[in-house]
Amino acid sequence: MSTADIIARCEALYEDLDFTAARKWKEADPSRKVIAYMPVYVPREIIHAAGMLPLGIMGGGDGLEVIHGDAYYQSYICRIPRSTIELGLSKRMDFVDGMLFPSICDVIRNLSGMWKLLFPGKYVRYFDVPQNYKDDVGGSYYTNELNELREGLEHLSGRKISDDALRASIEVYNENRKLVQAVYAMRSREPWKVPSSEVYLLMRAGLVVPVEEHNQILRDYLAAAEKVQASKRDNCRVVINGSFCEQPPLNLIKSIELAGCYIVDDDYMIVHRWLRNPVSTSGDPMQNLSLAFLHESIATAAKYDDKEEDKGKYLLEQVRGNAAEGVIFAMPSFCDPALLERPMLADRCSEHNIPYISFKYAENSGQMQPIREQAGTFADSIKLWS
Amino acid sequence: MSAATSPEVIKESSMLKQKGMIAGNYDRLTGTKESGEKVVSTFVPGNLNELIMCFDMVNNLPETNAIQNGMRKVSGGMIMDAEKAGHSEDVCTYVKADIGMMGRGNIAPNGKPMPAPDMLLLSYTGCFTFMKWFELLRHEYKCPTVMLQIPYQGDGKITKNMRDFVVKQLKEEVIPMFEKVSGVKFDIDRLREYLKNSAKAEDNLVWVLESAKNRPSPIDAYFGGVYYIGPMFTAFRGTADAVEYYDLVRKEIEQRIREGKGPITPEGDMKEEKYRLVVEGPPNWTSFREFWKLFYDEGAVVVASSYTKVGGLYDQGFRHDPNDPLGTLADYCLGCYTNNNLPQRVELLEKYMNEYQADGLLINSIKSCNSFSAGQLLMMREIEKRTGKPAAFIETDLVDPRYFSHANVKNRLESYFQMVDQKRSGASLAAA
């Protein structure tokens, strides 16, 4: 199978806003349940261990006409909640049994309450995470929160989630993390062979198909990409920051690449890479998931940095670890976490002489010429004068 | 209406007392260089004033500084300064007004520079922006910062896990940091004494807010309400001054009820109560007087508001409890209005609509504040559906004058009052 074949399948999954693959998975067995989740992170292992399908919802992108959703939001609120409401009201998610709203910002937080009001009877949980990273403080709180989630899913399915099932699910997600990291590493090593638009679609596929299937897709892609013959271009290597929630249109990623940038790291769909190392499969699985969250999570604007000196540390690691030459802060309009974080990260970049540019987008942005010009000028300036 | 043509503002004794308290606190804040007192910056919702007092520290609230600058019409320039420095036009204007204020020397309303904080107490209660705001301040001040994370009531209840988490943070993070910065050892009995004062003042605040159930309402529970909540939500809860203030304001309102008077406005007593409204959302501060005038000129009085609950839902029964000092602080933080989920907020507004016999709901949607604003259009629909009363939606901002359009707000309010009239006449015809 060629990379083109694999990506064609991933692109079809990405464009399918009726979530046909997830529907088919559910229809195969009447006892199956689907639990949707929004960015940025939920412990999918618990959903998987309950025999359910975790379904990542990243809004409606640029392929969804928002008719009802706009009536629920003022003009100064980002687009992802309105297109998510649209997905719900248009019955595209009518097969979904529950929805998790991670702690990321006030808009997604309030959307959890809206979902309760709009879809009574569905399992809805605001998934809180600790901003205190001490084992016996934030860790205890988070372990209890995880147990509440576990109990909620048990109640929904009518069956217990065993520790063994959790360990098995952690194992399969550890494999997924390893494969995802391998794809990212390959792109960083040879970005001319692994375009970012393809990496993006590969990761999007992982949101809507069972993890075992995603693992196979990733294995197939890694094998196929090795055989790709492509010439290295004189592009500039950049890290994308700020796109962790509302996703940019695929064309925006392609435009950045066409403008002369190799994206060597990013924060798209960080649920796949939230935990940087494998989660232990021995001992108490909930405790292990909790400790992994506390000590192995990547940094993102939705999290509190306990120490001032930690601000931007992860971004600097991304830049250095991938030999990047610059940072593109690409953030959704009205995204509080990303936009409030940016000045601090920008200062870190300046302190370390890392060039950067910033622009905003919406998931349905259509006009790419300004983005291409900005990214192209940035790439040229790095190549000519950096 | 320009300030030059404004009639003289009518002030009652309680107003003068509050003015003195605020001025005193600013003098204390700007005098710490001489007094040697330490300053802690923190937020209004989840404000732990009683605990701060236990360490002899002075409470500085960036939100109220932004409000002061908004009301004094100087916040606009500060916001633009922050935007020029790289802060997005899309984000909270309290944050930008605060950062812009810093760039202009952090001048307090008394004209003196405010000191840099010795400590930031990040009470992360009901607002995500708080977290980033204090990271930004820490980025500037490089001072000790302690986070108190308050879990959100996603399922509309406070669980044991949430409460335990908050208490544990108080014991293991917040109090040790206060001791370290202030050099004062924590004394739980001292905290109990302050909490007793808080509960006394809270009783009277609730009485004041609930006095709006009278017809005519002797208070405006939004525009006037922001003054009534002032001492309670800021640097005075737990003090003898606050107890005295709420005694005084209660007596004044008792007198107004006896005299059958409506609320006091900047132009004197409101004459006729034509519309009773419940308001959701914070007010606009840059045009506060003009905004209020649009209501009292039409005979509209706000009988209940959600904004006056951001610093605690005392009217729903919460009181600080000296018998459980840390637990009660946790309950307080967890219970603030914006820490309630949307269904809880809708239920509260519905309750206000019924209990205060309101004619309708008005939502003042604030561009800056997603914590309040995201979901308000659904809240409006729910209230209309549940009560059958008309609701209206206006949009302004907290302290960014660019987002207050007097003509737009006036037009919408006039249309809304007509809608209330039509609804009433429809109801009268149906009853006839």
TrEMBL record, chain A:
InterPro entries: Benzoyl_CoA_Rdtase_C (IPR011958), FldB/FldC_alpha/beta (IPR010327)
Keywords: Iron, Iron-sulfur, Metal-binding
Enzyme Commission number, as recorded: 1.3.7.8
EC class: oxidoreductase
A Pfam short name: HGD-D
GO molecular function: benzoyl-CoA reductase activity; iron-sulfur cluster binding; metal ion binding
UniProt cross-references to NCBIfam families, sorted A to Z: benz_CoA_red_C (TIGR02263)
PANTHER family linked to this entry: 2-HYDROXYGLUTARYL-COA DEHYDRATASE, D-COMPONENT-RELATED, SUBUNIT OF OXYGEN-SENSITIVE 2-HYDROXYISOCAPROYL-COA DEHYDRATASE
Family as reported in the entry's similarity comment: Belongs to the FldB/FldC dehydratase alpha/beta subunit family.
Protein name from the UniProt record: Benzoyl-CoA reductase subunit C
Species for this entry: Thauera phenylacetica B4P
Highest classification ranks of the organism: Bacteria, Pseudomonadati, Pseudomonadota, Betaproteobacteria, Rhodocyclales
TrEMBL record, chain B:
Source species, domain of life: Bacteria
One of the Pfam families matching this protein, by short name: HGD-D
PANTHER family reported in the protein's UniProt record: 2-HYDROXYGLUTARYL-COA DEHYDRATASE, D-COMPONENT-RELATED, SUBUNIT OF OXYGEN-SENSITIVE 2-HYDROXYISOCAPROYL-COA DEHYDRATASE
Name of the protein in its database record: Benzoyl-CoA reductase subunit B
Similarity-based family: Belongs to the FldB/FldC dehydratase alpha/beta subunit family.
Taxonomic lineage of the native organism: Bacteria, Pseudomonadati, Pseudomonadota, Betaproteobacteria, Rhodocyclales
One Gene Ontology term of the molecular function aspect: metal ion binding
UniProt enzyme class: oxidoreductase
NCBIfam families found in the cross-reference section: benz_CoA_red_B
EC number: 1.3.7.8
InterPro entries for the chain: Benzoyl_CoA_Rdtase_B, FldB/FldC_alpha/beta
Keyword list, A-Z: Iron, Iron-sulfur, Metal-binding
